[in-house]
Amino acid sequence: MAGVRRRVVVRRTRTAQGGRNGKRAAARWPVAAAAAAAAGALAIAGCGQTQFGAAALYSNQRISTVKLTAEVANLNAAYQADKTKLNPQYTQAQMPQQVLSWMLRFATTDQLAKRLGIHVTPAYAQRQANAEKAKLAQSGDTLKQAAVLNGLPPNLLPDLGRWLAIQLKLQQVLSHGVPPTTNAAQQILLAKINHVQCLTAKSMHIKVNPQYGAYDYHQFAVVSLPSKLSAVPGAHPKASSPAPQLRPNC
């Protein structure tokens, strides 16, 4: 995908056949940081009332724990079928976070498209998915393998095509049809993209069931809640794990 690379712009999968097991290393799409999905009624507060069985709430809509559990099962099945070749950078226990991040990512991007009047046809979305598939093939990857490495259930790949298409058109809108050619221009466009996405996510009032973590407005993904150990005197959080931005800064 041409243009600016950002947290929610697909990063091409680069594979490595290193290591003793020869598994493909995960070069991820969006970065997303956990508990295993569980059936049953789970409560999450939102809109002044308690919603049962909700993994997340947004814009007066809900992602049910039943739906999330089913999609996590789809991801796990795809991983198990090809696990000798894959080395995802998340554990099975973190699959619910990965999948929920994608479900919220798709919802946010759809809302963003509505706000900006971006229209994407199914044919255009399919062309973007096919283009991504072709680029991945150059590195010896399949789109399905890339999906699993990125925590996306392969059955949701049609949604990925639409997401890619909206992201591309968003860049075109914000750059006024002139792709950035310098690093400075790319950073300016990236800031615009992040700001628009932040405003969209903010307007959706996203609430995540604490069982799965919290919504991070820095990564635009579901991440683990900060450990209480980090508040213990003498304990130092890892430099590679910055504190999540739990409130929109836009």
How does this structure look, described?
The chain is an alpha+beta fold and 250 residues long. The protein has one domain (25-225). Helix content is 41%, strand content 12%. It has six helices and nine strands, in the order βββββαβαααααβββ. It has helices at 65-82, 95-116, 122-137, 143-149, 157-174, 183-204, and strands spanning 24-25, 43-46, 49-52, 54-58, 61-64, 86-87, 207-208, 214-216, 221-223. The strands form four sheets. It has a three-stranded antiparallel β-sheet. The chain is globular, with a radius of gyration of 18 Å.
What's the helix count? 6
What class do helices, strands and sheet pairing give?
alpha+beta
Span between termini:
26 Å
| Number of β-strand runs | 9
Helix content: 40-55%
Q: Write down the domain tally.
A: 1
Rg computed from alpha carbons, rounded to a whole number of angstroms: 18 Å
Task: Sum this structure up briefly.
With 250 residues, this protein is of the alpha+beta class. The chain has helices at 65-82, 95-116, 122-137, 143-149, 157-174, 183-204, and strands spanning 24-25, 43-46, 49-52, 54-58, 61-64, 86-87, 207-208, 214-216, 221-223. Helices cover 41% and strands 12% of the residues.
Characteristic terms for this protein:
250 residues, alpha+beta, three-stranded antiparallel beta sheet, two-stranded parallel sheet, 6 helices, disordered N terminus
